[in-house]
Amino acid sequence: MAEIENAIEVRDVTKSFKVYLDKGAQLKERLLFRKRCRYEERKVLRGISFSVKKGEAIGLIGHNGCGKSTTLKLLTRIMYPDSGTIKMNGRISSLIELGAGFHPDMSGRENIYTNAAIFGLTKKEIDARLDSIVEFSELAEFIDNPVRTYSSGMYMRLAFSVAINVDADILLIDEILAVGDANFQSKCFNKLREIKAQGTTIVIVSHSLGQIEQICDRSIWIHEGLIKAEGTPKEIDLEYLDYMSRKMQDKNKKSDDGGAEDEEAAAQSGKRWGSGEARIKRVRTLSADGSEQNTFRTGEDIKLVLDYNVNKPVHDAVFGFGVFDMNGVQCYGTNTRIDKVSDFDLSKSGTAEILLKDVKLLAGEYMIDVAIERGEGIPVDYYRQAYKIQMLSAYGDAGIARIEHTWNLQR
Amino acid sequence: MSTIKELYAYRQMIFSLVKKDLRGRYKGSVLGFLWTFINPLFQLIVYTIVFSKILHNDIPQFYLYLFVALIPWIFFSSSITVGASSIVAQKDLVKKIYFPRMVIPISYVTSCFVNMLLCFIVIFAVIIVTGTGINFLAVLTLPVIMIVEYIFSLGMAMIASAVTVYFRDLEHILGIVSMAWMYLTPIVYSKDIVPVKYHKLYNLNPMTPIIECYRTVLYEKQVPDLTTLLWAAGLGVFFLVFGAVIFNKLQKHFAEEL
Q1: In chain B, what residues touch A203 (CB-CB under 8 Å)?
Q2: How many CB pairs under 8 A join A and B?
Q3: A324 occurs within a structural domain
Q4: ipTM
Q5: By the CB < 8 Å criterion, does B252 face chain A?
Q6: B253/A27 Cβ within 8 A
Q7: Of A33, A129, A149, B36, which sits 20 to 30 A from A215 (CA to CA)?
Q8: Helix (H) or strand (E) segment spanning residue A8
Q9: B-proximal residues of A, 107-166, CB under 8 Å
Q10: Domain that holds residue A380
């Protein structure tokens, strides 16, 4: 055939689940408590159509409960659609639940046979692959020990090695690339690329947009059971991130309204201390366009705004801030003294603005401490964990903050 | 047709499940695999005492008469009673990964079948030791009878295991049903003492012709009646196809129900 065949064709697929409010599985319960068998029907997929060409890699993205994992389960045929059709051409292997059927008392080698058999391999086929599976898992020394003696990392490595060596035509992956240490992960990635180069069709469901961008040719964004957008991962991921940050803000605003933290409570919990001549009244962050928000993309400008009250004039005031990750590791911190900005004469209430340029913090949540001090560091109002911001990034780089770099490779 | 092809592709999985089941069944017990033999032997002793010493009958060598019927019966009844929960027992696999679901009842029934074959070693030992003797021509038909029983058991196990997923009580109901079924099948008695007007009804029970065939070959040392064998085979195939159709219908929602 001249035209490239489709490896996967999904047409108008819908799927709903019965959510039992109180299910009686026994005859007695069914007869006696008919009313208890009430259930709600929850539509998870409302008509999804897409096709994947042979050798193409696509990523399914979307927030929790949008139906992307259900889509994947339908593709693996663990579940069947209520309506619509799914056509798959070729042998399917899934990296959905790794190590299905592993028996803890059996050796690694025996488990390779059992596990591979579940993927539909015959003994001969497994024999032929055994060496490459063991080699890939890096478990040659332990392969005859019972699996229960393995660490969880070793377990996952073995499971992944089996699944990836099935030589499937279609590979379905759900959030598994968090296997093992960084070293093994990169090995998995390389193997995936290799497999893709050999013409295997790949479907990935992941929260890590970075992973999807690295491997996939196309992203499909599923939202509330429908396909919201479809295109190159770069475009779709940005659209998706924008949507997510807007949504998160709405949510945060809502929770802020109800929960303005009581100063007293903050003081008692040890989050706030100082002599009290001036008090920080409110902390907020603005984006470059001046709108108030607390989710930012890596590399954006953030404006940190402090409103303060002055009870008693402070003539040698110093403003400071610090950024901490959720483990309490300080990512950055400075104050006007360190920055050699002349001391402030605080005599009446006002607002201080700090423009943070080009913030390279990577995806995650960060806490901001703010403080007013006097002289050589006497706290007037030190407010720990005054504000929380969220950073989003579609890029897969790791660490706390991005270090700008260029690659200069001699070939 | 495609189902058969797929099952063939997954033969290694069936094989490894059977192996796991046989190895795992008596794991940790002191007598281990010997239980395969001890269990039916004790049943045999009890029934022999009850039905020949307490309730008298004039069947010669009653223990053998009973034994050749009891072992095939145990195969069938364990296939359906324990087989019923086989899919529920493998729910971790079913919920997580794709494979033809029929693999589970097939491997379960097969492992029961292997158990029966092992028990047949004991049957033959008894036949030889007691000097009852063997008709070799008749014994050649034994595999055919076994296959017929296997087919029928598999059909029933498929229905039982699939329905149990939706209706867990079935597992317990089947315990009672299998007991009743045993007494409605000529195992501890001969069909001859059953009033003739019920014979037609008795023959609708596929286990009746199957048990009769076993008995003809091993107890009466004769080649079984061809019509009886064909009738049994016909019923077996019918229930296998029926079971497979039902199983295929029900298996689509396994992952959600488990």
Answers
A1: none
A2: 68
A3: yes
A4: 0.73
A5: yes
A6: no
A7: A129
A8: strand A6-20
A9: 113-114, 116-123, 126
A10: 261-392
Q: Is B28 on the interface with A (CB under 8 A)?
A: no
Same domain, A42 and A70: yes
Q: Which three-class secondary structure string do you get for B121-141?
A: HHHHHHHHHCCCCCCHHHHCC
Looking at the 3D structure of chain A, how many domains does it have? 2
Residue B34 dihedral angles phi and psi, to the nearest 5°: -60, -25
Nearest of B253, B79, B91 to residue B160 by alpha carbon: B79
The domain that contains A231 carries what CATH number?
A: 3.40.50.300
B99 touches chain A (CB under 8 A): yes
A234 and A286 in a single domain? The answer is no
Query: How would you write the pLDDT of chain A (411 residues) with one tens digit per residue?
Result: 435 578 888 888 888 887 766 555 566 666 665 555 566 778 888 888 888 888 888 888 888 778 888 888 888 888 888 888 888 888 888 877 776 778 888 888 888 888 888 888 888 888 998 888 888 888 888 888 888 888 878 888 888 888 888 888 888 888 656 656 777 777 888 888 888 888 889 898 887 777 787 788 888 888 888 888 888 887 887 788 778 777 776 766 655 544 444 555 655 566 788 888 888 888 888 888 888 888 888 888 899 998 888 888 888 888 999 999 888 888 899 988 888 887 778 888 888 889 999 899 988 889 899 999 887 778 888 888 888 888 887 777 888 888 888 888 876
On whether any CB of chain A is under 8 Å from the CB of B95, the answer is yes
Q: Are A207 and A214 in contact (CB under 8 A)?
A: no
Are B96 and A100 within 8 A, CB to CB? yes
Query: Which residues does chain B have within 8 Å of residue A76's beta carbon, measured at their own beta carbons?
Result: 97-98
Residues 6+ apart with CB under 8 A from B21: B107, B108, B111
Statement to judge: residues A57 and A153 lie in one domain: yes
Q: CB A103 to CB B93 under 8 A?
A: no
The verdict on B2 touching A (C-beta cutoff 8 Å) is: no
Determine the distance in angstroms separating the CA of A77 from the nearest CA of chain B, rounded to an integer: 6
Q: Are residues A231 and A335 in the same domain?
A: no
Q: Which of residues 101-160 of B touch A (CB under 8 A)?
A: none
Alpha helices in A33-95 (DSSP H): 68-76
**Same domain assignment for residues A109 and A233:** yes
DSSP letter assigned to residue A139: -
Q: Determine the residue among B7, B97, B176 to mutate to test chain A binding: the one whose Cβ has the most chain A Cβ atoms within 10 Å.
A: B97
Query: Taking a C-beta distance cutoff of 8 angstroms, is the pair A365, A385 a contact?
Result: no
* Residue A122 and residue A167 in contact, taking contact as beta carbons nearer than 8 Å: no
